[in-house]
Amino acid sequence: MAFNRPRVFMLDLIRALSIFLVCMGHSVEQTFHFAQNDVFSVQGDYKGMVVLMLFSLARISVPFFLFLTGYFFLPRTYDEEGMKGFWVHNFLRLLLCTELWIILYNIFDYFFWPKLDISVLGTLRQMIFLENVPTMDHYWYLPMILGIYLFLPVVANGIKHIDAKLLLFPVIFILVAFTVTPGLGSTDITILDAGYTGGVFGTYVLLGYLVHEKVFRKIPAWVLGVVAVVSFLLIHVTEYFMHLLGSQDIVWYSWLPLIVTALCCFELLCRHNGEAVIPTGAHKPVNFVARYSFAMYLTHFPMTLVCVRVMYWYTTSAFLTFLVAMIVPFCLSLLLCWLLDRIPKVGRYLLYMR
After folding, report:
1. Whether the model pTM is above 0.85
2. Rounded to whole angstroms, how far apart are CA atoms 38 and 294?
3. 165 CB contacts (<8 Å, ≥6 apart)?
4. For the segment 142-184, what is each residue's pLDDT rounded down to a tens digit?
5. How many Å apart are CA 284 and CA 286, to the nearest integer?
6. Which of 256, 178, 264 is nearest to 219 (CA)?
7. Which of 332, 323, 325, 329 is nearest to 310 (CA)?
8. Is 344 left (phi over 0), alpha (psi -120 to 50) or beta?
9. How far apart are CA 1 and CA 27, in angstroms?
10. In this structure, how many other beta carbons lie within 10 angstroms of the beta carbon of residue 336?
11. How far apart are CA 196 and CA 194, in angstroms?
12. Residue 79: partners with Cβ closer than 8 Å, 6 or more residues away
């Protein structure tokens, strides 16, 4: 694929940072297993809080990816040919990519988890979206983004006829309905039917569009910075007391403080967008990682599982295991994606390269 097209450095930086945070988050999760164990009793209060802070910081990655989806796709106008083109080149190609990776993940599981009951019927049920791929914690993103892609060009055309600020009403309403109780540590989930909004993830996409339309631009940068820090700290105050009460719940994307933190950071970064230019200097490696960011998302998780298992054979240091399981999959998945992209059609259909 060509790497000499004009690109916006800050948007590439957000992509590259996001995939690094994805690798960090999965490394933390697979190393410390704090969803099954009390991280504070195992690591102590100080180290336990560091672990949770690293994981919460990593959670910003998925909101960033969804914000970028709205930032790039919703400002466009789709005529009849444009809508057909989006469904063929984006939705159907992503659907094919997802089906291929379901098969590959099951092949990996067959050898890596020999005690698991891997069957053709189970794989087929996953391929028609009746079941999740149970060992691949990152897989949930694929059917979610497929659902959003299905109506994305329709939504893009619809919102062209209204002031972007008017979208704040339904977006805030959905965010409050879906995020307030989880943010307070409750397991209760609203029975409100989110319909075409895509639920909390659909509102992430709409928030990315609102950033593109400069809806939040009048908010002073220092206010956004303070709100981001306070909301990030609020996540950990909540988590700390939840763990003291015996809960091992972890930050999910329906936590309002996480959404606020991610949105403030995304808005601040996007205020430094410049003109699209051909990457030079420091922009080149950032652009390289950014272009393979989604492909790395597809390939990194099995490598993380392998790294964690291998490191447990050679060290008792959880933090050393975490570092290796973060850095090695990031580098190896980038290398693997670059190599696979050299093979005709593989990058396009297996890695969803454009």
Report:
1. yes
2. 32
3. 215
4. 999 998 999 999 999 999 888 999 989 888 888 877 776 655 5
5. 5
6. 264
7. 325
8. beta
9. 30
10. 18
11. 6
12. none
